[in-house]
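Q: What structure does this chain adopt?
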Amino acid sequence: MHIHHLVPSISRCLLSMGFLILAVSHASGADTTKFKRIEPQFIAALGDPAATSGNGAQAWGFWDQDPGPRACKLDHYPQLKATGVAPAQWKFDASDWWLEEHGLIMEKPTFPLAAGKYLVTGDRETTTVLTVHPKDKNGNQRWELADGATLNDVTHLGCRSARYTPSTSNKPSNKTTANACSPANAPTKGFPVNPGGAMPAVNGCNKQDYTVLIVIGLPVTR
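A:
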């Protein structure tokens, strides 16, 4: 697999960086003077689309750079499996792998999402502040959006992402079953996935769909 085979994905969801900068200036109620603009980063979120706050942010992930251009086509999975490392130098984890809306294998985000404030948008009408609180004594992290915004308001509907893990325990004595959850079993048709649609099921895998939030600003630090 060669670097020229890498295809941008989430980056193709974005209209343009210029649009995102414009979105900051039109942020609904957000005090953008407390934030510095950044190259887009991305949050993999779980939650009720209609919620303005909730629990469980400890299960949210974070990409500090666009994973789309760093992704690999499904038909290049044999090379990825053989080397264990993508051309972009991220490591492939056969027990925890991710697909995006164009059917590309992408690097998994880092977990958990750090507590703090993020200026987020869905690249539509709403830009607002997401607050992720520190873990409580039970390990739970609360999250909340300002201005009455819902999770759906700041979800980029065109960006789809799903996490695939073995549907049975990955026991060394049962390698056949453990290896059944593989990108080799992923469908090759049905891509790109419609905006807001569910990612495809893969035989042998548990699937978890994540919504994608675009981070366009981080707090200014003194």
